[in-house]
Specification:
The complex is a heterodimer of chains A (918) and B (378).
Chain A lengths: L7 E3 L15 E10 H12 L2 E3 L2 H5 L2 E10 H9 L4 E5 L4 E6 L19 E3 L8 H5 L10 E4 L9 E10 L10 E4 L4 E4 L5 E7 L1 E8 L6 E7 L3 E2 L2 E3 L17 H4 L5 E5 H6 L9 H5 L5 E2 L9 E2 L7 E5 L2 E2 L4 E2 L4 E2 L6 E7 L13 E7 L8 E7 L2 E11 L3 E10 L2 H4 L10 E14 L4 E15 L4 E18 L3 E18 L7 E19 L4 E21 L9 E3 L2 E15 L4 E15 L2 E6 L10 E7 L3 E19 L2 E12 L1 E4 L10 E4 L7 E14 L4 E18 L15 E17 L4 E15 L15 E2 L6 E10 L4 E10 L3 E2 L2 E7 L2 E6 L5 E2 L3 E11 L9 E9 L7 E9 L2 E8 L5 E9 L1
Parallel strand pairs in A: 3-6, 8-14, 9-15, 9-16, 20-25
Antiparallel strand pairs in A: 1-7, 2-4, 5-6, 9-12, 10-11, 10-13, 13-14, 17-24, 18-19, 20-21, 22-23, 24-25, 26-27, 26-59, 27-28, 28-29, 29-30, 30-31, 31-32, 32-33, 33-34, 34-35, 34-36, 36-37, 37-40, 38-39, 40-41, 41-44, 42-43, 44-45, 45-46, 46-47, 47-48, 47-49, 49-50, 50-55, 51-54, 52-53, 55-56, 56-59, ...
Chain B lengths: L1 H15 L2 E3 L12 E8 L5 E7 L10 E2 L4 E6 L4 E6 L5 E4 L9 E7 L5 E4 L2 E5 L3 E8 L3 E9 L7 E13 L6 E4 L2 E4 L9 E7 L4 E4 L7 E11 L8 E10 L2 H14 L17 E3 L7 E2 L3 E4 L1 E8 L16 E4 L2 H7 L4 E7 L5 E7 L1 H4 L15
Classes of the chains: A mainly beta (918), B mainly beta (378).
């Protein structure tokens, strides 16, 4: 028997009474051939009693009765006799209409054992289990009645309601669930702990609680004063009938936030992926405004930002290299991810330090009720995860691991590729502990590692590590604080041992220690404040080159360590001015201190920074060498014309103090990061955006159009032939360029239904310009040139068709303009060979990109009680077999110039994946 | 599992093999660069500088030589040497420069249209001796390596070039030659075309540095690779490796040129970028000049590789089936010049009744581009 299937009744004190003694008002009227709903409405106006019923259901039921000054209860009994509807009336003059079972408005004797403050639960003995016989649990408003607060304290027009939304099955918090009051057009979403907080006028409301992958809940709530309401949602998988809820999917219209994209793991898994590996980053790439340079590229570009301008957070940990296997897979295990949020334009004030976007990846919390797990086998990886309670209903863990077994397969390849090796793995561990209603503790750890060599004796290896601890504390109903500490680390090393004299190890690492205090403070119905303090201490080893083995003559070359402190103080206000107009305004003041010990190169003023213009070196023992500080502004405004149409505008500014140095097309495993220092200024960016949001067909279709214009300052670009690794004076090889990006993103989305998915069109440009007058040789003569990832047109379609609960088909079609490349403009003859002559940077484009993928998902049977559940994913990647060019290049071979087109996947790639859940 | 493994190989091959020829029509540019290649030889022997122009990407043909220019080498002590053009080839030569190691030199070029170009001053760098050139059998071919060291630890940046020579042997020995319409016996040894030697030069830029090492020791710096079963490795192969010491700037220039023009095509390609050498156009600084003038004294070393030393090379010049053709005018005319006679077929009485015929390249190694004069070092 599941407690969670009970009807909850929250009420004040012990105000339940007995119905028998009361005299009911008398009813007269003709209720012939009308719907039950109509009858209830008429009775409502005649008696002043409040009727609670499922409108949809009651509208379909016809009643046939007449009454002539008869008591209400008798008329109802008569009218509902043949309909299967039951009714009950409580002391408060509420009439509850239910199907099949009658709501018992009194408690069974001695039922105060489950009393939790002002919340009471009707004992399961008093109310029969609905699901046991019906097997068809449906969401009906009228069956859930919640009373919050104390009736006596009805002195305020508004009340603050808070609580947790949890999964009924596992007890895990439901993240990003929308808690919404349709009539008021007001709502909120739960945070990553499933917690929500909402200010509502006292009185009666219908709360809609929704989350993707969960059954929707509608609760009729009577609010007297501040109080708490916890909600448990059922997994949607358990239903055998499609749950189509449309009226409430209005979040895109009503939320103030712009340029926010959310995907839950169920959606991510539906996007056909390479080798069938559900891939977070590749799913993000299907969203409007997000691009990458090509298939084997680790990063992504958001609205003209470079790959290092995205803050990628996994449970608050910063991930520096989000990819495995040359960028073909992302470094996140899909089985333990819950959902992702991508902020493209109005970045919440609590985030900072990157210019373009924040990708917030949240993993699931472990099942607090029972042990479950999953094992999966794919072409490239196998994975395993397990979760369960450590202390039932209080402490849970989740552990996930993924690894490849490609090495032995690579050995089957012909010489010389048989000496290739490639492997990767990642581990996740999460522990959550519920101390009491005020305190929760979360610990999470992440480790990913990659190692490969491709037919060479040079081994590349890199690794991400992250661990953090978070304490969540509620200071009463209105103020919640989150205190986080942890560290994140990224390191790579390259070793080569073939030539014993030159055997070397090249290494790089960056570590950051984080300390955060974030507060959410609900002042009143109109104002919710977010404020807090973040501090990050960076320790960075820019590069070390050391000998390996005894015979090596390599001399140590170590670029001195860098350290810095980035602190920020922020304050934001979510301000509901009126039902139509809402504003999120915030300011974030960030201070960056570049710390000693360090030797800083000094350059002659007014001339380009070159090795010859170094005038000296200044040594600092410690302390602050350079400080950069500036306020960053975050503003977004929403005006909702009605329930289905809104206009939003936003302004966003930010600064970035740590930069990735890369002069390759995509993120290479040997790219290094660099802190801003006296010679390298922080990158700056700001963006204005405007968006229009319209929902059609009872909110089953969402339309949006967003426009933006962005300026970039001190964007890092490179001089021709720049050396980035082991460079002791990196500032001589980089140029800080200015940039501008602008674009439009149109999207049509159908979030639910048998056929669901989205189609998006993006127009976007990103242009850079080197306009530093002190530099003699400007790229493209100081004129604007497109960045590598400037792909103006992009059309993406992601669709899923559910044939039934066990079979679904999905497709992904994408087209984009080819990316710019620098092509030769002529040939010349030198050193015994014809060679190509390059000129303007990125003046040409590779051919356009087009790809279509399909996948079929087959679920095993859905019997709840069986020991294991199986599922298969079978699909075809690049179904047209189009040889999409990754690059076009010209090389001199045997004395002649030859042009080549390189495609990463030039054929149809089939894939198959098997998962077993236990 | 087997199915999965095949699938994976298929996938990996798809990854590795997806490279195809690509020719696009790019607009030809009017931006023509001057290309200056050469080395101021401070040792014994001539110095030659080649001047040419860059040309359109899709044009056919060879680079346009820049003729009738005045090319002068200037020392910072005021010395000056004029180079003279060899024919109308764009090659300017001086038989013997006398460069002082204490001085720096530069190159001045004045083209026919009176545009003047001037290089930066460059030092005269002497190369240390090459310790050895060795080769290894790897990846179904041979890889050559250079070994050298500089006890004074000043050299650090090296560039290598080579001139190679290889012996070829005709599939059939030729005893007759065709002169006009007559078939005449060959005079031996002068007209022996069964053994020839072919010559080549390096076509890639080979560089090495010891800047990251504690001592200036080059150990097995990879030079170039020859795959098995090519003509060069058919009989006997020789390479003369020349070693030159560069300044760091020159090294970086050539490295960038190499990266831009030879080493593209991987997933993590650096972006090709513009080249700026050490030669400038005086009247128009925006005019692009390709090339980096260097000066010094080179060292060289020759090694030989015999096909017998190779574990798995077996080159046979292809498509050489022979045919016996009766000694009749009509028959011979029918087959020539596709097939050419290389030996007589005699009857018992010594009459020429027919000719053994094969494509000329099968019996005459000079037709394969070789010279039948044995080089002095062979």
């Amino acid at each position: 028997m599941r407690k969670s299937l009970l009807i909850f009744i929250f009420f004040s004190g012990c105000s339940l009474g007995v119905i028998a003694q009361e005299t009911r008002p008398l009813i007269s009227g003709d209720f012939q051939g009308i719907s039950a709903a109509e009858m209830f409405r008429r009775m409502e106006s005649a008696t002043g009693y409040r009727f609670y019923f499922d409108v949809q259901h009651a509208s379909q039921i016809t009643v046939n009765t007449t009454a002539n000054a008869e008591p209400l209860d008798r008329v109802l009994t008569k009218a509902l006799q043949a309909t299967g509807l039951k009714f009950s009336i409580d002391r408060e003059h509420h009439v509850f209409i239910t199907s099949r079972y009658q709501v018992i408005t009194t408690l069974a004797a001695g039922y105060y054992k489950e009393n939790r403050g002002n919340i009471m639960v009707i004992d399961e003995e008093a109310v029969p289990d609905f699901t046991a016989e019906t097997k068809k649990p449906e969401t009906k408003v009228s069956e859930k009645v919640v009373v919050i607060g104390e009736k006596k304290v009805r002195n305020k027009p508004h009340a603050i309601i808070s609580g947790y939304v949890k999964s009924e099955k596992s007890g895990e918090p439901v993240i990003n669930a929308s808690v919404f009051i349709e009539k008021l057009q007001r709502g909120t979403v739960t945070d990553q702990y499933g917690h929500y907080l909402l200010t509502v006028p006292t009185g009666e409301h219908i709360f809609s609680i929704q989350s993707l992958g969960m059954q929707d809940q509608k609760l009729k709530v009577i609010i007297y004063s501040d109080g708490r309401m916890d909600v448990e949602l059922k997994d949607a998988v358990a239903t055998l009938k499609e749950v189509v809820v449309s009226a409430q999917k209005v979040a895109n219209v009503t939320r103030v936030q712009m340029g926010l994209e959310k995907l839950n793991i169920a959606t991510i898994k539906k996007v056909p992926a390479l080798f069938g590996e559900a891939d977070v980053i590749k799913a993000v790439l299907t969203l409007p405004g997000v691009k990458s340079v090509g298939e084997a590229s680790a990063g992504f570009n958001v609205r003209g930002g470079s790959t290092d301008q995205n803050l990628i957070l996994l449970n608050d940990g910063t991930i520096y290299n989000p990819s495995h296997f040359f960028g073909m897979f992302s470094a996140f295990n899909p089985e333990i991810i819950k959902d992702i949020e991508l902020y493209k334009s109005s970045i919440p004030v609590k985030f900072g330090g990157r210019l373009s976007s924040v990708l917030n990846i949240t993993t699931r919390e472990g099942n607090k009720k029972e042990f479950t797990g999953l094992a999966g086998v794919g072409v490239i990886t196998s994975r395993f995860n397990i979760e369960g309670p450590l202390v039932k209903n209080r402490t849970s863990f989740i552990f996930g691991a993924r690894t490849t077994y490609a090495n032995w397969l690579l050995k089957l390849l012909p010489d010389p590729y048989d000496r290739s090796k490639a492997s990767f793995s990642d581990l996740n561990l999460g522990i959550s502990h519920h101390i009491n209603d005020q305190n929760d503790i979360y610990a999470s750890g992440y480790y990913s590692t990659d190692q490969f060599n491709l037919a060479s004796d040079t081994t590349y290896a890199y690794s991400n590590r992250s661990a953090n601890l978070k304490w969540k504390h509620s200071f009463g109903n209105k103020l919640t604080g989150y205190f986080t500490t942890g560290f994140d680390q990224y390191e790579y090393h390259v070793t080569s041992k073939k030539n014993k004299i030159n055997a070397y190890r090249l290494a790089f690492d960056v570590t950051q220690f984080n300390l955060k205090a974030d507060f959410t403070h609900t002042l009143n119905a109109r104002h919710t404040l977010d404020y807090g303090l973040n501090a990050v201490y960076y320790k960075l080893n820019p590069g070390s080159f050391t000998p390996v083995g005894t015979g090596s003559l390599v001399k140590d070359d170590i670029v001195s360590r860098e350290q810095a402190l980035e602190s920020a103080l922020y304050l934001g206000d979510r301000y509901n001015i009126s039902q139509q107009l809402s504003v999120n305004a915030g300011i974030r003041y960030a201070i960056f201190n570049y710390l000693g010990p360090q030797d800083v190169n000094l350059y002659a003023a007014g001339v380009p920074k070159t090795e010859t213009s170094i005038t000296g070196t200044k040594h600092y023992n410690g302390g602050v060498i350079q400080t950069y500080q500036a306020p960053e502004y975050r503003l977004s405004v929403r005006y909702a014309f009605n329930n289905t149409f809104s206009v939003k505008a936003g302004y966003n500014s930010s600064r970035q103090y740590i930069h990735m140095l890369s002069n390759t097309t995509s993120i290479a495993p040997t790219d290094i990061w660099k802190l801003s220092d006296p010679n390298i200024k922080p990158q700056q960016g700001d963006q204005v955006s405007l968006g229009f949001y319209k929902n059609l067909k009872s909110n089953t279709i969402e339309l949006s159009a967003e426009f933006y214009y962005k300026r970039l300052k001190n964007y890092l670009d490179y001089k021709p032939g720049a050396t980035l690794v082991l460079n002791h004076h990196i500032e001589t090889d980089v140029i800080q360029a200015a940039g501008k990006a602008y674009g439009a993103e149109l999207m049509l989305k159908k979030p639910g239904g048998k056929l669901n998915g989205w189609i998006s069109y993006t127009y976007s440009r990103i242009l850079l310009k080197m306009d530093d007058p002190t530099i003699s040789e400007l790229i493209n003569g100081g004129k604007y040139y497109p960045a590598n990832y400037d792909k103006p047109h992009d059309v993406t379609l992601v669709g899923n068709y559910k044939v039934n609960h066990r079979l679904s088909f999905s497709a992904n079609v994408t087209y984009s303009t080819g990316r710019p490349i620098t092509l030769p403009i002529g040939r010349y003859y030198y050193a015994g060979s014809e060679r190509v002559l390059y000129s303007d940077r990125n003046a040409y484009r590779i051919p356009d990109y087009f790809r279509a993928d399909v996948a079929m998902n087959i679920e095993g049977n859905h019997k709840v009680k069986q020991k294991t559940h199986n599922s298969w994913t079978i699909g075809l990647y690049n179904i047209t077999g189009r040889k999409n060019p990754y690059s076009v290049y010209f090389v001199s071979q045997n004395g002649f110039v030859r042009g080549y087109k390189l495609s990463i996947f030039g054929s149809i790639l089939p894939f198959i994946n098997y998962n077993i859940r236990f | 599992m087997k199915r999965i493994s095949y699938l994976f190989i298929f996938l990996l091959l798809a990854v590795l093999a997806c490279r195809e020829r690509y020719d696009i029509n790019l607009k030809s540019t009017d931006k023509v660069a001057l290309v200056v290649e050469g080395y101021l030889n401070g040792g014994n022997g001539p110095t030659s500088i080649t001047l040419s122009r860059s040309y359109a990407l899709n044009s056919v043909g060879s680079p346009l030589p820049v003729t009738k220019a005045q090319v002068t080498v200037e020392g910072d002590n005021g010395s000056s040497f004029s180079l003279t053009e060899v024919g109308s080839t764009g090659r300017y030569r001086h038989s013997q420069l006398t460069l002082l190691p204490t001085q720096q030199y530069r190159l001045r070029i004045k083209t026919q249209d009176n545009t003047e170009y001037l290089s930066e001053y460059v030092p005269v760098l002497s190369s240390p001796a090459i310790d050895s050139i060795n080769w290894k059998w790897e990846n179904e071919g041979i890889m050559f390596y250079a070994n050298t060291h500089d006890a004074t630890a000043k050299s650090k940046y090296y560039r290598w070039e080579y001139e190679d020579t290889w012996e070829i042997i005709s599939n059939y020995s030729s005893f007759v030659k065709v002169v006009d319409t007559l078939i005449l016996p060959r005079n031996f040894p002068a007209e022996d075309v069964s053994h020839c030697w072919k010559y080549g030069t390096s076509s890639s830029i080979m560089l090495g540095t010891t800047a990251q090492l504690q001592s200036d020791v080059v150990f097995e710096a990879p030079l170039y690779f020859l795959p098995k079963n090519i003509e060069k490795l058919g009989v006997r192969y020789s390479t003369l490796v020349k070693q030159q010491v560069l300044t760091r700037q020159a090294y970086e220039y050539f490295l960038l040129m190499k990266k831009n023009t030879e080493q593209l095509g991987s997933i993590f390609d650096p972006l090709p970028s513009e080249l700026r050498g050490n030669i400038r156009c005086l009247s128009n600084p925006a005019q692009q000049v390709i090339g980096y003038i260097t000066a010094g004294i080179t060292e060289e070393k020759r090694i030989f590789v015999s096909s017998n030393d190779l574990p798995g090379s077996n080159y046979i010049f292809p498509n050489c089936s022979w045919r016996l053709v009766p000694n009749k005018k009509d028959s011979l005319r029918k087959w020539m010049p596709a097939l050419m006679p290389y030996a007589e077929d005699l009857d018992l009485f010594g009459n020429v009744v027919g000719y053994f015929m094969a494509p000329l390249v099968c019996s005459d190694c000079t037709a394969r581009g070789g010279s039948n004069v044995k080089p002095s070092y062979w």
